[in-house]
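== Sequence entry ==
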Amino acid sequence: MSNQPHIPNLDISEVGRVQEVRQGIVMASGLPSCIYGQLVDLSNGTKGLILGFNPESVLIVSLGDDSNIRMGDTLVSRSELLTVPVGDGYLGRVVDCAGRPLDDKGVITASEHYPVFREAMGVIERDPVVDPLETGIKIIDLAIPVGKGQRELLIGDRQTGKSSIGIDAIINQKGKDVVCIYVCIGGSYTSLKRAVSLLAQKDALDYTIVMASTAATSSAEQYLCPYSASAIGEYFMFHGRDVLVVFDDLIKHAWAYRQMSLLLERPPGREAYPGDIFYIHSQLMERAGKLKPEHGGGTMTFLPIVSTLQGDITGYVQSNLVSMTDGQVYLNASLFHEGFKPAIDMGLSVSRIGSKVQCPAVKKVSGGLRLEYAQYRELLRLTRLRTKLSDEAMRQMKRGEILRELLTQENGRPVSTIEEIVTFYALKSGALEKRGAQEVKAFKEGFFTYLTDTDSELAGLLDSKRDLSDEIKTALDAEIEEFFSSLRDQENRG
């Protein structure tokens, strides 16, 4: 089966007449042979998309300004379905859902056109997900690993750091030959500009496409935005590339679709959402995956973001997305306010791919991590109740505090997998248990740099092997001791 998208030649062109215009929806007559998803040329020069029917008229969503469309105007159906231009020229650009530039950097030359709505690849065309997509976020890479071709949901309340995780994951792909697409749906111009500025500052914009349909755009554009981004991602995937797409966020996409559906006179269901709200998101999520070599061998990984209200992950749209993704990273507002960032709740977070995508070294240092942190949280709760703890429990508390410090990470500072390995090896080996809080913090911030400066050969060997042999462990133990000795020497001199 060819990976080239099928774009039907409809060979149908009819002239209709506008009956009514209301909030971006054009009701027209005189198009008896039109089909769902067909394009039309409106009288003001913009395009429209057929997305509904009733006995008397065709319902068309305007893909541009509809302010000068009047009742009685003519429109013409086009012999094509909705497509979006694709190609390498889009790398480093900010575009809208139609692929038009928003960044004043000139015209973009497209290689091809791909259909916005496309049937997802079948089971026969797919390979299992086995390769890691390194996010640079320690708690995710160690406890909730993401693989290339996976769909991992980022879920939590507003202002808990979901977008930051998505952007950090993009920043961490620098030098890894991964094409990234950041999709802003219904956000503000301020948040969009902030994201673009951060990507540019971190030299991540060169391999990233930013597609935006802000809150100022129509509900139709916000609805189409993630599908257009997926079409661009498919272009790279079918050409053997690895792609990462961050959707920010899908609750606003659902709101836009609800508003558009009500205007299209579709019967409302639960929470006023139309009956096909599950389908539109599952149709989108299924476009991620890993292709077999004979079909291109590329991958497309999705990190969809969805906001919750007061931590309720059982909301209609939220629970739908949980059920159709390969795991979720849950961000807890309470942890965020405690200062634990990223505020990821390991108890509620899960990756259904799991350790299958982790290298041997990461598996060894991350084993038992979730249990250890859960025990620490329980002991912390007991201390707040002024419960007296045993010596063993106090030792576990100490390890838990060290673990919490190591997992804490600033926004915009993803770390390499090798740094994650050496940092948590020190915890696993017990080298940090007798250290004070300041020493642990200094170790987290400075040891990897110290290691690469003093023994770059060891760091290179660990990077190539991605495993912890006895030889590497012995060398690491020695480097850890030397690091703390150098810290003591600095303190004595000071």
Residues 269 and 275 are 6 Å apart (CA to CA). The radius of gyration is 26 Å.
